[in-house]
From TrEMBL:
Residues 182-192 have a biased composition (Basic and acidic residues). Associates with the 50S ribosomal subunit. Belongs to the TRAFAC class TrmE-Era-EngA-EngB-Septin-like GTPase superfamily. EngA (Der) GTPase family. GTP 1 binds at residues 9-16, 56-60, 119-122. The keyword Ribosomal protein does not apply. Residues 3-167, 196-371 form the EngA-type G domain. It comes from Skermanella cutis. This is GTPase Der. Gene3D superfamilies: 3.30.300.20, P-loop containing nucleotide triphosphate hydrolases. Residues 168-180 have a biased composition (Acidic residues). It comes from the Bacteria. Residues 165-192 are annotated as: Disordered. Pfam families: KH_dom-like (PF14714), MMR_HSR1 (PF01926). Keywords: GTP-binding, Nucleotide-binding, Repeat, Ribosome biogenesis.
């Protein structure tokens, strides 16, 4: 059974772009499918193991000739009747418009659950619109970039509560093992725990496939393609310490690597695609060739994408000078990934199945930190101490003032600073605050985002 989602929103927010992003090449098949309503585009899609039917409403408003509000409402009414979940898109670059407001007010009264998506959030230009989106009263907006494929893991996460349980929990035994969320659903049934979305990435031959096999057991990985999936992708889900963990992509792992000039580029592009689907990324490196150029490129990508990173130093069984190697790793991290202190490093042997628990414990720990929220009062108390110890600089004789700070989201921890002259606040000062936050408020090893806003 698939989950039907309707993409709605005013013109130009990116509905078609998101539709194409989700549906991909299968689009061509749609027009020929009998029974698909002609004025909608609806197509199947599969996103991180979830089967979707995606309805696009773009352009439909042109079919009616009264006011834009009324036309949009009619188009939407019909689409959400069919849908299990509505995806309301806004353009974060343009900010919240009266038409978005109108839409949100109307949707709040309906029965269909709504996930609010702030589109065009790549880079920093989407930040102001993202805050405004909170005001729509539809919960926390999910920042995405339909055009660049960013935020898909967050979208998956927002969709998971609506996925029929048998799809997130492959069998009954596993459901029993997986435990439950403390808060029960309205129908009295416990909410299934959502799987942690894990990716394993790394250069060819570092031992990714071996690690995967050791983690989940040989047979599970070799069970082969499920119906409706591409041939070389399989879904792997297992439970560790009562936590369901889902590997978001196995395609890259099964593909046999070709040795040619393009290999490096391909591996990096592949890694990026997988990273965007994940919450926690395990970067596997080879103990014999510690953190080379390409390892570091992938590590930076993980952090830039705002994911939690764990470095797995594999083939530890072959290392003779262990202390020396550890020192080398530490130096590399200090010099090359200085922006995020405290990235967890686990040494292990995938082949001998050694220290696999240590790896998964590190995954669960960093996931917890990545989800952490700091209270506004703690933040502002801390901020007062920081600005007193080391005030922001003056520009043209007037001191820049930082008035207020709040955490706007977790996953990764993202903070907003209200500043008198946001554009003049130097990068070094922001780094001072980020490093301080990490240490004083206990956020080691995860990327931290700091956004600035003009204070009133
Ligand atoms: P629709 O009318 O809601 O279906 O919007 P479209 O999908 O046609 O997109 C409207 C415009 O926004 C197009 O120029 C897209 O290229 C652009 N767009 C869509 N998604 C993004 C995004 O994530 N980032 C940016 N910067 N532009 C986007
Ligand atoms: P992938 O390309 O990253 O998926 O790497 P593979 O899993 O195919 O492993 C590449 C090679 O490294 C294989 O010959 C494995 O047997 C070997 N290998 C993997 N893990 C270990 C390990 O922990 N110790 C040793 N000594 N060899 C390993």
């Amino acid at each position: 059974m698939s989950l039907t989602v309707a993409i709605i929103g005013r013109p130009n927010v990116g509905k078609s772009t998101l539709f194409n992003r989700l549906v991909g090449k299968k689009l061509a098949l749609v027009d020929d499918t009998p029974g698909v309503t002609r004025d909608w585009r609806a197509a199947p899609a599969r996103l991180a193991g979830i089967d979707l039917t995606v309805i696009d409403t773009a352009g439909l408003e042109e079919a009616f000739d009264d006011s834009l509000e009324a036309r949009m409402r009619r188009q939407t009414e019909r689409a959400i009747e069919e849908a299990d979940v509505a995806l309301l898109l806004i353009d974060a670059r343009a900010g919240v418009t009266p038409l978005d407001q109108h839409f949100a007010t109307w949707l709040r009264k309906g029965k269909t659950p709504v996930i609010l998506l702030a589109n065009k959030c790549e880079g920093r230009a989407g930040a102001p619109g993202l805050y405004e989106a909170f005001e729509l009263g539809l919960g926390e907006p999910v920042p995405i970039s339909a055009e660049h494929g960013e935020g898909l893991a967050e979208l998956v996460e927002a969709l998971l509560p609506y996925v029929p349980p048998e799809e997130t929990q492959p069998d009954a035994d596993q459901e029993a093992e997986a435990g439950t969320d403390p808060e029960a659903r309205e129908d009295g049934r416990p909410e299934p725990v959502r799987p942690l979305q894990l990716a394993i990435v790394g250069r060819p031959n570092v031992g990714k496939s071996t690690l995967l096999n050791s983690l989940v057991g040989e047979e599970r990985v070799l069970t082969g393609p499920e119906a409706g999936m591409t041939r070389d992708a399989i879904t792997v889900e297992w439970t560790y310490r009562d936590r369901p963990i889902r590997l978001v992509d196995t395609a890259g792992m099964r593909r046999k690597s070709r040795v040619d000039d393009k290999l490096e580029k391909l591996a990096v592009a592949d890694a990026l695609r997988v990273i965007r689907l994940a919450q926690v990324v395990v970067l596997v490196v080879d103990a014999e060739a510690i953190l080379d150029h390409q390892d570091l490129t992938i590590a930076r990508m993980v952090l830039d994408e705002g994911r939690a990173l764990v470095i797995a130093v594999n083939k530890w069984d072959t290392v003779t000078d262990r202390a020396g190697t550890l020192k080398q790793i530490d130096d590399k991290l200090q010099s090359q990934l200085a922006q995020v202190r405290g990235i967890p490093v686990v040494t292990l042997s995938a082949l001998r199945r050694q220290k696999l628990d240590a790896l998964l414990d590190a995954v669960l720990d960093i996931y917890e930190i990545w989800n952490r929220r700091v209270s506004t009062s703690d933040l502002n108390r801390w901020l007062a101490g920081m600005t007193e110890a080391h005030p922001p600089p003056a520009v043209e004789g007037r001191r820049i003032k930082i008035r207020y700070m709040t955490q706007v989201k977790a996953r990764p921890p993202t903070f907003a600073l209200w500043v008198s002259k946001p554009l003049d606040l130097p990068e070094t000062y922001i780094r001072y605050l980020v490093n301080g936050l990490r240490e004083s408020l206990d956020l080691p090893g995860v990327p931290i985002r700091m956004l600035t806003r003009k204070g009133k």
